Amino acid sequence: MVKTNVQLPYFDGLLAEFGKGNEQAITAFGRHVHWGYWDNPNAADGTVADFAAAAESLCRRVCDAGGVDAGSRILDCGCGFGGTIASLNDRFSHKQLVGLNIDDRQLARAREQVQPSNGNQIYFILADACEMPFEDNSFDVVLAVECIFHFPSRERFFQEARRVLASGGRLAICDFVPLPVHLFFSRLADIFIKSAVASTYGPFNSNFTLSKYRSLAATTQFSLRHSEDITANTLPTYPVVRRLQRQMGDMATERVTAMAELINRLGLSRYLILSFEVVRYFCFR
Ligand SMILES: C[S@@+](CC[C@H](N)C(=O)[O-])C[C@H]1O[C@@H](n2cnc3c(N)ncnc32)[C@H](O)[C@@H]1O
User: Fold this and answer.
1) Please, what are the domains in the chain?
2) Given ligand 1 and candidates 2, 150, 155, 156, which is best to mutate, with the most ligand atoms within 8 Å of its CB?
3) Whole-model pTM?
């Protein structure tokens, strides 16, 4: 049974702004709801149009890290408003594209916004990424673009991704990955900011280090195939998103975004793209 009442406060705010016709909010977050990637961060111009283009670049980078071109069945977990599925639909043909999300309001927008083209098939499914309603070996690629920190358990998500992936399948994610030193400070900071994060961004677990990812991969039969630190390429996100949050009157979320900016600028946490491959076992007789 899917808990459809899992709603993240920042999505409540975005949906309210979309309802009011806030063009800046729609341009920035109507397709993708994640940070941007700039090849040259110094060339970022601070506009929402530039941010939206950078968000598309980040999505493409994660998809490419997952080797989507070589797969025909692609699952996007935590699919938001369907931006990653829309991007795949624009770029590729004859793929089966499935978006999964726990919030049916987001899925309703995704179904409205994204129509299949290029011979692709598209489905949007209401489900928890840690309890997927799919048969074993159903997909060639599983994606989770900037959402794994919301899931109830990374361990459970990796197990599910492994189960639904076929032999040789790939999992690609992006996440805010702390350095071990940050964990010490974050335990102290939690006392002050945990409730501020919960009441703005919702459930958010950012304590998973790269070494934890390596161990998790090993115990769930994945091997790490690609790890890329794109922190510097994402930094122009913060001034744009904070300005939008101020303009929306959402000062509480803006304060939490400012704290995240500080942590990333200090290098205590890094923004990583990670991709994993299902380990193949050979049987010798
Ligand atoms: C930051 S948004 C990213 C959305 C989308 N991946 C994108 O890049 O545009 C996080 C997404 O994770 C979804 N989410 C949170 N918990 C989830 C869960 N347990 N299962 C599936 N989706 C979940 C949220 O509803 C939201 O769409």
Assistant:
1) 9-278 (3.40.50.150)
2) 150
3) 0.95
